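B., you asked whether I could sanity-check this one before it goes into the benchmark set. Here's the sequence:
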Amino acid sequence: MQQARGTSRLEKAASDVIAATTNYRAALERLLVIYQRDVDRRNELAELRQDLYERGVLSKREYEEGLQAQAEAKKNLEDTQLAIADTDRMLAEARMAERLARLAPIPRGGYEESSGLVRFNGAAIWSLAHDTPRLEAFFQSHFGRALPISAFGQTTLHDRMGFDHHNALDVAVHPDSPEGRALMSYLRSAGIPFIAAWGAIPGAASGAHIHVGQPSPRISVKR
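And here's what the prediction gave me:
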């Protein structure tokens, strides 16, 4: 009974995060359209200002002010794009937590696949500080590029969500990709626990990642 109540609270907390984040993402999408239009307009003006400046019609101060406005518009657009990427990661984590709250724990060493989710409760003692270099070396040697870490330990995003991510690592690879399959195979062979999620938006790659560390992300529930 008590476990059921705890599960219900976890589901509710994750559901609340999902609803709030979905609304926030929609607002960011609307803002993105506005900022993109502003960038397009500033780029057109920049060409005109360049011509006027070269012909001596525009002063250096006015020309530089135009460049500054163009740079600020681009920064607004880039910041919004980054914020959308953050919300996708937040949605992926929250959806994963919501699903995990409904599932029974798997035994030590257990492996389970379900639609859009893979979890492995490896028996190895995972240390973020000591074991991450091994993962990085494996990934670099197999794919010739750095391990695409999207979250290393606790982040402000996890603080905002109430997730305990202190000893966990998120890797931004799709579980169905060659990189994702190879990484999951390596983690299983090493006994390292992980959860693979297919993303925040059903049918899209956005937010898909592999969570390395404790068997399940923990979310704080206020009593």
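One thing to flag: Residues 2-54 form the longest helix (53 residues). Otherwise nothing jumped out at me.
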